[in-house]
Structure formats: C-alpha cells, structure tokens
What does this fold into?
Amino acid sequence: MKFKVLVIVLVAVATVGAIFSVLNDMRRYDEFMLNEARISSTNTFWYFEDVLSTLSNTKMVEFPSATVTTIKGYALFDLEGHLLYGYNSVNDSFSRNSNAYKYATLEGKYVSPFFKPSTIPFIVLACKTSDKTHVSMAIVGVKRSKIPNTFLVDKTGLGVNMSDFKCENFLSVMGLNKNGVILKNGELFFIEPVGIGGYTLLIKRSFWPTLFEVSRKTLYIWLLIFLILLSLMTLSYYRISRKVAPVLDFENFLKGLDTFRKYEKGSKDELSFKYNQLVEKHEKLDKDYSELIKNISETNAELVEMNKLLIEFSMLFNEVKSERKSLQEALRMAFRRILDFSKPISGIGMKYKDMEIYLGTVNNFNFDSSSSSKISMELKTDSTVVKYVVNVDKFTINERTKEMIRTLLYHVTTFLSMYEFLERSKNSMKYDPLTGLSTRQEFEELMVREEALAMRENKHLSFFMMDVKKMREFNEKYGKFNGDVLLKYIARVISENIRLTDIAARYGEDEFVICFYAMKKEDCIKKANSIISQLKNYKYEVNVKHAVLTYPNDGESALKIVSTLERNLKESQENESE
Amino acid sequence: MKRAGIVIFVVLGLIILFMLFNPYKERTTVGILLPTDDVDAHFDARVGFLTAMKKLPKDVHFIDVDYTSTTLVSAMKKAVEEGVEYFVSDGYSSDLEKIDGFLERAHSILIETTVTNPTMLKKAKFAFTLSPTDDVQAEAIATYLKQMGFKDVVIVKDTTNLVYVNYLAGEILKDLSGIKAKSIFLSETGKIVHSPDVFVLIMSPEHAVETVENLKEKFPNSAFLGSDWTFHSLLLEHIQVVKGMVTIAFVDPFYLQSTLNQEISHDNLVLTPAAVLAYNALKVAYVLAKEKVSYKEVKQYLNSHSFFGVGNSFTFNGIHATTPIYFYRITAAGFKLAWEFGGKS
It folds into this structure.
C-alpha cells in the first residue's frame, strides 16, 4: 500500500518536473527563435539601408555589372519627374507616377511592398540623392536566409520565404497586430518588425513537432531519473521486505491462532466506520420494530372492537327478525355504534329504498360530492342498491381503519339482503304462488279477525267453497300444465267476482273458498251460481261441486263453518264415487 | 490510493470538459482566400482585408487560405476540414466556375469582393458579391452610352477571364439594341477600319493602358469607357495615355477620404475602391460568422440586414450588394465623378 503511494508520488514528481522542464525549454527556444528573428530582421533592415545609402550617394549613368546580384534594376529622376537614366525597369516600376517616386519625393525615401512580375518577388527602393537634386530608384530581391521557414512579410500581409522565395499570405497573423511569439492554428510564429517599409520578419514553426523536438532533448533525462528512482525504491522495498520477513511470519503465526483471529478486521478507522454503520442500522431496525408492534396492538384493539360490533349487529338484527325492533331503528343504532368505533369518523349516512339515515356531519349532499375525506360505497342488496357515506378525518385515519369500516358496512348490507329475503319468504306463505289467492293458513288467520269484526258490527259472513271434480283425471287427460292453467282461470274468475272486502283462498289442491263480508246466504248463492256459470265458459269441460254456509246462522265460528263446508264437499264426493 | 484515483479522475474530467466546451474552439472561422501566384493583382484586396482585420474584434477566428490557379478547390476543402465555414475572397468569375457545387457540399458561404458574373454566382450557390453584378453594370453602361448619344460602339474584350468578359459584353450588346454595336477580342483590334464613337474596354488595367495607347493613335476622335476591371490606381501612373477616359468603380471617392484612409496613410497605403470592397466583404463575413448564420439562411439574412462598410450602409439584393455604380473621368487631378447609376435595392 505504502509502496503504491510512493510510486504515485514519484510519477507525480517526475511529471511535474518534466512539464516544468519542457516549459523552460520552450521558453528558451522562444527566446532563441525571437533572437534569430531579431538578427534576420536587423540584417534585412541594414540590407535596405545599405541599398538606400548607395542610392543616396550614387547617381549611376551606367549600370555596373558588380551590383547585378543585389540591384536588379535602376533609375534616376530629376525632381521634375524626368527620367535621366533607367536600366531594367520591371512593369513600369520606374515612373514619375509610381508610389516610389511620389513618396521618395515627399518623404525622402521609400520602400515598396512586394511586387511579383515573374516567379521571384521584388522590392522597389527609392530615395532622394544626398544633394537633394535627384531621386534614385532600385529594384532589389529578397535577401536569402539559411533559417528555414523565415518570411519577410510586407505591410499588406504578403510573405516571401527567404529560402525559396515562395509567397504565402499572413494576413490573419498580421491582423493580430502583435509582435513576439504567437501561437495560431497549431503554428508558432516568431515576429519581429524590420523597422523600414512596414516589413516584418516572421519565422514559422509547427507547434507539435517543435514541442516534440524541444522536449526530446530533456525529457529522456526525467525518464531516466524516474527509472533510477523506481529501481532504487524497488531494491529498497525488497531489502526491507527481506529484513521484516521473520516479523511478518511471526505476525502470521499469531494471526493463525484463534485467540488473535478476532483482531483480523482491518484498520481501526474501517472498524469504527463499520461499527457506526451497524449501530445506525440497529437503531433503525429498533425503531421500525417499535412502530410495527404499536401498529399490531392498534390493529388488535380495533379488531376486538370490530368483533364486538359484529356480535352486537347480529343481536340487533335478530331483534328485527323477531319484529321487536323496526329495521330503521336497528340500523340507526348500528350506525351510532360505527360512529363511535373510531375517532376519525365524524359522520355516517345511508340511503336505502325510501329510508335515509344521517348521523354526525353527514347530510343529503354528501352523497353527490366526492372528496378524499370520506368513504363512499354503493353496494347491492338482493333487490336494490344501498348507498353509504362515512365522513372521516383524512389526516388521522389509516387504511386499516378504513378497511374495517368497509367490512362493517358490508356486514350491514348482508343483513339487509337477508332481511329482504325474509320479507319475501313471509309473503310467499300468505299467498298461493300459482293462483295469487290467499293460502289456507292466511285465510284461517284472517278469519279470526273477520269473525271478530262481523261479531262487533253484527254482520253476516257467507262462505262459498267449491271443489273441481275429477281433477286428477283432468290432469291425466290434458296434462299438468293445463291443470295449472285451469286453477289459475278459476282464481281469476273468483277475483273478478269478489269485492275488496271479500277474502278468497285456495283452500286445498283443487278447493277454493270465498268469505263474503256482510252478505246474506241468498246473495251468496247467487254469486256462487254466477261464478260457476262463468267457469262453464272455459275451453275444456269443468265440473265443480260447491256449498254455501253463513256465519253465525250455520255455525258458531267461521273456522268451524269452513271445516263443515270442507267435510260436506268430501262426503258428497265419496257418495258420487260409490 | 483512492484519493489519488479521485484526483486523476477529476483532472481527466476537467480536461474532457475543456476539450468539449473550449471557448476558443467555439469561435467560428473565416477563411481568407487569396492566391499566391498572382499576388500583384490582389494588392488592394490584401490592404482592405488587413485593415478590416486590424479593426474588427477578435471574437471570430481568421485563417489564411492560400491557393494557386490549380489548387483552389483542394485548398478550400482543406480549410473546411480545419473548421472554416465562411470564406471571403477577391477572386474572379472563372474561380467560381472551378468551385462548382463545393459550397453546397461543404455547407459553406463565400463572400466575394469583385466577382460580378450573376450566372456564376447563382451556379456556385451560397456565393455573394459586394459588387453589382454584370447585368446591372451592363445596364448602367448601356444607359450611360445612350445618354451620351453614342451611335457606334465597339466593345473590346480581354483574352483572359473569359467568363466575365463574354458575359458582360453580351449583356451590354443586349441592352444596346437599336444602336450599332459589336464586340471583338483584344487581338482583333487591328481589324477595325472606321472610327467608332466609343470603345468599351473590358480588360485588365495593364491591357487597358496599352490598348488605349494603341487605339488613340489610330482613332483619336473615339472616346474610351473602361469596365470595373479597368479601374485601378495604375491608370493614374499613365495619366498622359488614359486622360479623358471614363472608368467604372463601385466606391464613391468621397468615402475614400475617410479617417480609416488617414490611419493607413502612415504606411504609405491607400484604400482604393478594390480595398474598400475587400474591407466591406470581410466585415460581412465577420458578421455572418459572429451570428453563426448557416448556409441555408444566409440569403435571407443578407437580404434583410444593413451593413456599415467604409462607404455608406448597404444591404443585399439577391446575390449582390446594393452598391451604386460610379463613372469616373480620369483627369490630371485624379479620378473625377462623372455619373452615378443605381444603388437602391
């Protein structure tokens, strides 16, 4: 571990050293190149100055062969613009209208930008002669330089390579208006103004090859230093390792013992960090566990409470079944208990058929609006739909309590379904499902009341009973279905011929009885004949026996009269069969 | 060890971020297209470009794109690979023919200083010029000739830069319908027998001096009118020959007296009309580069913006700037404004 850190430090030191070394080398290289540019610039300056000096001090009337290498052309003007002597004028460079003549006359001397009549660029130099009477002009070439990529750049940004005289544009560099070192477009430019004619001396180098070239000279030293240091460190490391080897063996031996094994846990910091993490985890678990226990206790308490309620509801509904309490009363009591079931419940309401129950904060409008602070339920009973609304405090109620409330409401709904079923069952005992007339039991129960009423009001009760003859044969002949149709037909005829106050019943399988309230026997016989005559209209032949008796004339009680009638009809049937 | 790793990771991350969001890399690049085999012809343009570059802020990157007559497209291709999106050039109409569909392929824009051939400009796509196009110049020349009452016109064409000379001559002839006019090449001047009212010279200034000198001897009564190509300070150096000749330029001499001209006068330089166009062209390229105008929207941008050059403000009308056409008479005192045409978009 420590060895690795040392290697990193070593690499960092070597890298920083190498960077500083390269920067230092580049600085020295820049200074060197700038110096080169300065020397070339000075040489160019003196080259121009020498030519101008020669032009100033000489009035040539014949072109000397010795100067051919430097001066390519020559002209001598007087101050009135007359050409006195001219030799090798290129492209009318020697003209009184040229810039050279104009500026030399005005300013004393002039150095033109490059012009390139052929493949080689030239410069026109002009000056007044020392006696101020003439203007001399000369065409010169660019002075050759041994340094590669050295350019003489004129004031328009056109550069001429001083080695091969090729042209190159340096507008983007000259446009920066800077001297010294410029790094632009991956190239290094060393710029030094010449100081005459707006010329600039520029040396161009590619940046990356230059950097490589410069760093190549010193970088290997740093690499060497790094390798030597690395080697020394490696050697030291192995020597120290060998020295401490017995100690390490002993340490490993101790670690191998069970007694010390518990200490093999890494560094102290790591252990304390892990310990703190474990403590945090433990505290979190402890907190979660407490929460859970609390939650379970609350759930248990609520479950106990809910079970109590369910038992109470069962008892309440039993009372409804036994008709000791009305349904509405029982429901109101049940809802009161639900309201007290949990604190967050602030109101409860129910709509069931025509029944509406509101307790607490719930009113009729709560059924229409929806909100997060209420539980709305719409449940189906056997025959209809029941709506519940429970107002709750949304901030304190939890899902568990909500679920329990829903369970209680389901329970209430189940009871309502059961209640509906019981009601229906009761009705089915009172009326005969085939004919819709009262059953024998219902008739007998009603007779108790009718008898009391007739006695109190001193009225007659006339009873008419009839029995369909040979009903079994009829069924066998025309079928059970037609038998049922016949019975329904008889019931309909009876229903059409009785008043609202009269009571008709299917007394036996093929027996019918009618109790006419406040009707005398003669009238009852007439009514009976009318019914029997109507029965003749049925599509099949129907034969009935009948008998008529009146209370209180023919018996002491209504039920006795009815049983007499039944007995009479049975006896007459037996006689006929004999 | 872990910390050292984090340090190395952070340093590497910073380097990657710097490379991705390098503000210097963000700068858009303008390439200055200049030839190295015909340097004398572009002296004025170099003065204009350099003066503009010294004046403009440094938030746009400029690079030199040197080319010869045979390496134009390859030089542009290399420049595009180096990130150049906007070119500014003092080329000829024939150069645009070489470029062909390169600008569209490279998604680049070219601002020309003196190219005037509308066919070539339209063909090159995304190339725009600071000079009025040849059809506009031809209309100006024809209108001038008609106003001056010339009835017999001979157009003398240079034997180089054929795209330009043929197109301009053809357009002038079209606009001169009803007037006796013909066009000949420079080499055919010997065949002219009778003296026309006016010679229209479409040629380089050097050839113009020579031609005027030759034709004046033979036809002393004929007038001379030079196209924009002939306009050059070289004419003033041969004032005895070309005195009285009218030549066309796209810059008002009034603006040549600007403070900018005074600033560069200490270097014994003058902002000639060609230099002014170059100055304005570089400024337009600078604005496009700074606003990062794409090749798709450049036409709309140029046609909807005003630019402030050395002269008065100008905008673009299609592919050319709304520069007026000035007719200068060459006098002993220099160029003297004789007539002005157009200038409105």
